[in-house]
Write a structure and sequence with these properties.
This protein has 13 helices and 8 strands. The longest helix is centred in the first third of the chain and has 28 residues. A two-stranded antiparallel ribbon has the order 1-2. The relative contact order is 0.08. By secondary structure, the protein is mainly alpha-helical.
């Protein structure tokens, strides 16, 4: 299914004709439309998942899927850059998102996946793309005065929990790629800044948003945002050197989060859209992320298998009921704002 709905083709949006000759590229050149966007944050997660699936199963089709699309983007990047130089933001939004990211959603997840792919296959020649994304993350993304990654919506200086995942895994992967501790240190700084503002210890959950101008912060515990936070911690523990002085702190935060999540799992195995609200609907993507992170934590010896294994298995069985005959995953919340 994914192979069929994510074409790796440039086309003319007016005529629909495929374009292969750079002399024909112009303001109407776009990435051919499929069900998903090749440079989106959700596809950054998918690429990383494909690489993990290839490693676990030994089935090379998964990594081939990633390598073909990353090779296409790497080969097209000079063309994308020229189109942006010539036409600015009027070009295809997908191309603009790759060349000129404007938010961590545009950069972090894809960057992390590209670094993982590069570490496995250096022949991919993704350096220009990785450096472009990383420069945005480190230097261009909006921050609070204390350095926390933030957004200017819905109010100025709002911290979104999603941005833990849209930044931290890319930073720790860059640390793995380069061996430079500055990337690990920045990742740890962000974990501390986010958790200080957004982790609610008595619940073992993260609130979705924190607004600098508010004295009482909106404490809504959105399922997928908590998934992004848990996945960011998992990715950090995988990449952070054992010698790093704050690794144990990350592990304790991960354990506290898992301890908060597991009692709120429904009897069917799903977690709810709002985790602590049983009258909100069961949601697939959050459940899938929790299952992965809990199972991974068990396999790594970070948490106890006897205590948490049943939750992971129950959740896996629940998610497996949401794959339809076409190969689509059902029951997933749309991208949502803080309301």
């Amino acid at each position: 299914y994914l192979e069929s709905v994510t074409p790796i083709v440039l086309e003319n949006k007016s005529t629909g004709k495929e374009q292969t000759n750079s002399a024909d590229f112009n303001q109407d050149t776009q990435l051919k439309r499929g069900d998903f966007r090749l440079g989106s944050y959700e596809w950054g997660v998918t690429y990383a998942a494909m690489l993990a699936a290839a490693e676990v199963t030994g089935d090379k089709r998964y990594e081939d899927y990633v390598y073909r699309r990353f090779s296409f983007l790497a080969e097209s990047y000079p063309v994308f850059r020229q189109l942006y130089n010539d036409y600015g933001s009027t070009i295809d939004p997908q191309i603009r998102q790759i060349v000129n990211p404007r938010a961590l959603d545009d950069a972090g997840a894809v960057c992390a996946a590209m670094i993982k792919a590069t570490r496995k296959n250096p022949e991919l020649k993704l350096t220009s793309l990785i450096d472009n994304y990383m420069n945005f993350i480190r230097y261009d993304e909006h921050r609070l005065y204390d350095g926390t990654f933030a957004r200017k919506r819905p109010q100025l200086n709002t911290v979104w929990l999603d941005d833990m995942f849209m930044s931290i895994p890319a930073l720790v992967q860059m640390g793995k790629l380069t061996g430079e501790n500055k990337y690990f240190d920045e990742a740890m700084r962000q974990i501390n800044l986010f958790s200080d503002k957004m982790f609610v210890p008595e619940k073992g959950l993260f609130r979705h948003g924190w607004v600098e101008s508010m004295k009482v912060h909106p404490s809504f515990f959105w399922g997928r945002a908590n998934g992004w936070a848990l996945l960011a911690l998992t990715e950090t523990l995988d990449a952070l050197p054992d010698s790093h002085p704050q690794k144990e702190k990350v592990l304790e935060l991960l354990k506290s989060h898992i301890n908060g999540l597991v009692p709120l799992q429904s009897g069917e195995g799903f977690w709810h859209q709002l985790i602590d609200k049983n009258d909100s609907y069961p949601e697939t993507s959050a459940t899938a992320i929790y299952v992965y992170c809990i199972a991974h934590a068990i396999n790594k010896g970070w948490v106890d298998a006897a205590a948490f294994g049943p939750a992971a298995i129950l959740g896996w069985n629940a998610v497996s009921t949401k794959i339809n005959a076409q190969g689509q995953v059902e029951g997933t919340c749309v991208g949502t704002a803080m309301a």
